[in-house]
User: Fold this.
Amino acid sequence: MANQYDIVVVGAGPAGLMVSQIAAKKGLKVLLVDQKKDIPKILRSCCCNLIIEPGTHKEVVTYSSGEIRFQNNNFVVPYAGSVIPLKNSFKVSPGGQALTIKGKSPEGNVAISYEKEALVNGLFSIVQKNKNIEILCGLQAVKAENVKGGVKVTFRDREKNFTFEGKVAVAADGVNSKVVETLGLNEKRRKFFARFRVCSFHMENVDCPYPDSWITFVGTGHTRTKRGQLYMCPKPHEGITDPPVYELTLGVPVAATVEAVSTRDELDYFTTKGRFSGWFKNMKIVDVRAATLNFYTPLINPIEGNVVVVGDSAAFIETYVQGAMMYGFQAGNAIVKYLSTGSGLEDYADAWKESFEYNDPEEIKRASQGFGLHVLKDHDIDYLFGLTRGDDIRGYVNEFSDPITTRTALLSHLDQIKKERPELGAVLEKFSQVSVDDALQVDSRKKKH
Assistant:
């Protein structure tokens, strides 16, 4: 096997797979390397719904007849799996009150639930068929270096290191990118916010009163440690949508001042002893996934020499799976242009700067404040959600717009709140001043990474 390539792609998730196929179609020689031995198998927690709100990442993404369409970037990704249109988003308080957001799309959907395994398997099948792509599995990236004439990337397995050279390297190795870390970009260009532990149960036989919906359990009363947030929605499982398999995910911030907690233990508590345990009395767990996520501000400039950072590797939290594919598409085309003309990487960098919402610090604050309803007392959340009963609230599952939708719904009752609970009304009026650290339940004085 040769060790000199046009592009060395680190990570075979949606971003890395898109870069690889775009470049290989243009005749470039690509090495694609992933630490997993079975690339399409999903091991980590990932709340992968298709975010259909127009304008997300300055794109309009739709699903129809086995295709995910990217209108503005003008490309299509085949998807052979099943989907579940989600009709509502419910925010459920510890006391059982629900704030209901109905689907705003022309079809009446808030999002579309799909199966990530099916999507990645389809992308991987395309890559496997291209003779310009060599694939290595089971290798962990150690470091990337800019060298004269290109880049050098080192990987390792259990026994030894392997080094490959390329004209360009792509860091598509996820939110905890080893490539980004070894380039020093986390220290030079980013602010660290928090580390989260995440765990997901995939469950059969759930008696959920909110079918075909995205559910967020809001408030501290849902967990024993009063930390984190829970999400649940039906997911296609091995192509099956009926009876539904539900994914229940808990994300918990890791703080130096709080005793470490097992997210799996917290999920066990929620499903067996929590207020909504009746939903899960007959449930059967068919899969468990987990992840540890480091939250940094995004890389405003995702280029370092001849290393191009793509997808979650450059992001705050995530780009969504569709964002990973879109940015992989853009990066792949930019690299093709660069290797042909000597310029073009700036095309991708400019598109990233302009389209990824979290590059604006205010967006990080707004999105965190949506999570930060936790700063309110549980009985106040019960009261507030109860006020919205019967309201016609329209929106999407989208971390960028959802906090605004929720806040607007609550503030529409501000006069009544100020009359009945003036202290709570004053808190709501100043909710936009809640810090990111407080919203994420992080002790900024002692946080570590």
Summary: Confidence is low (pLDDT under 50) at residues 444-449. DSSP finds 13 helices and 22 strands in the chain. The longest helix spans residues 320-341. The radius of gyration is 22 Å.
